[in-house]
Amino acid sequence: MSHPFESYVISVVRPIQMTTREERESIIKESHYNLFQLPADKVMIDLLTDSGTGAISNHQLAGIVSGDESYAGSESFEKMRTVIRELTGLSHVIPTHQGRAAENVLFSALVKPDDIVPGNTHFDTTKGHIEFRKAVALDCTISEAGDPTSPHPFKGNVDLDKLETALKTNPREKLPLVMMTVTCNSGGGQPVSLANIKSVKALCQKHGVPLYFDMARFAENAYFIKTREAEYADWTIPDICREMFSDVDGATMSAKKDGISAMGGFVALRSDDVYQQCGVYSILFEGYLTYGGMTGGTMASIAQGLKEATDFDYLHSRVGQVARFGHQLKEYSVPILEPVGGHAVYVDALRFLPKMPRDQFPAQALACAAYVEGGVRGVEIGTVMADRDPKTRENRFPKMELVRLAVPRRTLTDNHLHYVAQTFGNLLRSASTIPGLEITWEAPILRHFTCRFKPRDNK
Ligand code: F0G
Fold first, then answer.
1. How far are the Cα atoms of 20, 131, 169, 209, 281 from residue 173, in angstroms, in the given order?
2. Is 100 close to ligand 1, i.e. is its CB under 6 Å away?
3. Catalytic status, residue 216
4. Which letter does DSSP use for residue 73 in this model?
5. Model confidence at 1, in pLDDT bands (50, 70, 90)?
6. Is 161 a residue of the active site?
7. Mean pLDDT of 64-75
8. How far is the CA of 188 from the centre of ligand 1 (A)?
9. With a 6 A CB cut-off, is 51 part of the ligand 1 pocket?
10. Which of 220, 268, 387, 410 could form a disulfide with 342 if both were Cys (CB 3.0 to 4.6 A apart)?
């Protein structure tokens, strides 16, 4: 029988420090209206990210304590590799300190200037690593993904015509790989169907281009396949994972998501040759091939975390909690991206603040207002994060302007999330008073982490 409630109990807790609106008004100003700059103890409900913020289990803690810290040949690495091989069928595993480090290792081996890497809305670090190498991250996501009201069940899907055009019109040597992100974070935590994965595999095989996954939230993607793709309703989550990865050439992983670890990542590969090429960069940037920037304890904890993250009952409570949160926001008439994603609810800032011009960064303005209103921290996924075009240096205006409210794994109760829904509901009533923002300083790449702003009416 499956659990009708969370499939675990909470055994270690951390207190939340309360703040007043007056305190938050001065803290946000001192933080230059950038939520990454806030002191975390001044945030009451932190939905900045689901990355590295999940609660670990007793078995994961046991792994951390009993990790094998040998420089080479660690037993904890072996444990982690065994689980990854079981879930993906990929034989080679290179540990890295986190997901973007896995991208760095893989792309150092495969991506060169002027290359084209098609995919389904690459995550910003993935795009950053591609553009840093003077290559192009080509977005081939289906058009429904750009419509926050479209009920399409697999809005992470790749548009097969767009992909085929990219594969047909570019010379093979300019196409080092196709990168599919499962689930698609930048598109709203939206899943990719197995039918789409299979079609993409067939296209890649036809054109001789390797296919890789960004597998940060692969378990949540597998849950959506089981619950939304009738053909797989009776399959187990690990069986769906194996089917997703069959014939895929490799993957990059941030174990901070579906590894339920505070830190860690890896590259998983099928080819001996690519493994050898990546190994050089791994040793150079990350560490020896059996630890790659992680402690033995972290690797043991990831081995266990991957098993727990692919447990159906866990996924049911995890994805179910995020869905309930989305439902509550809707009850307060807050416009959100639908269907609700696997790890986060995305508030649609363009419908929340319809009069604010795009160059006043409505999603960033809304995220700051939510902090002041309720001590809640989300993150902008909009024009600030989309960065400037690397060639023209103009702002890029993505189709959607969103505030992501990411739910850490096994950390918050529905009660916490109800408070967040209420906070946004309150804000909606005074939405016309939320000031737009202007940038006063920004970094040349990945600007959203450190960008400084000031309110428009404060000039
Ligand atoms: N790929 C995806 C889909 C991600 O969501 C992230 C990180 C990465 C790669 C990079 O992994 O952080 O371990 O280096 N996403 C975090 C987030 C930061 O908040 O969504 P990392």
1. 58, 17, 12, 9, 21
2. yes
3. yes
4. S
5. low
6. no
7. 98
8. 13
9. yes
10. 220
d(CA 352, CA 415): 23
Is the CB of 343 inside a 6 Å radius of any atom of ligand 1?
Answer: no
**Count of residues making up the chain:** 459
Mutation test of ligand 1: which of 50, 125, 343 has the most ligand atoms closer than 8 Å to its C-beta?
Answer: 125
Residue 125 beta carbon below 6 angstroms from any ligand 1 atom: yes
> Which atom from ligand 1 is nearest to the alpha carbon of 185?
3
- Confidence at 204, pLDDT banded by 50, 70, 90: very high
Residue nearest to atom 16 of ligand 1 (CA): 51
List of domains in the chain: 21-50+312-455 (3.90.1150.10), 58-309 (3.40.640.10)
User: Closest ligand 1 atom to the C-alpha of 48?
Assistant: 19
Spatial separation of the C-alpha atoms in residues 102 and 90, rounded to whole Å: 15
Calculate the average pLDDT of the chain: 96
Q: Find, among 306, 376, 406, the residue nearest to 56 by Cα.
A: 306
Predicted confidence (pLDDT) at residue 11 exceeds the cutoff of 60: yes
Show Cβ contacts of residue 133 under 8 Å, excluding neighbours closer than 6 positions: 107, 111, 112, 113, 115
C-alpha to C-alpha distance for 249 and 208, rounded to whole angstroms:
11
448 among known catalytic residues: yes
The stretch 339-354 carries a mean pLDDT of: 97
The band of 389, judged by pLDDT with boundaries at 50, 70 and 90, is: confident
- Identify which of 449, 445, 453 has the alpha carbon closest to the alpha carbon of residue 393: 445
- HSE on the CB side for 424, CA within 13 Å? 35
Percent of the chain with pLDDT over 70: 99
Reply yes or no on whether the pLDDT at 28 is more than 70: yes
Looking at residues 211-227, what average pLDDT do you find?
98
Q: Return the half-sphere exposure (C-beta side, CA atoms, 13 A cut-off) of residue 27.
A: 23
Please tell me if the CB atom of residue 290 comes closer than 6 angstroms to any atom of ligand 1: no
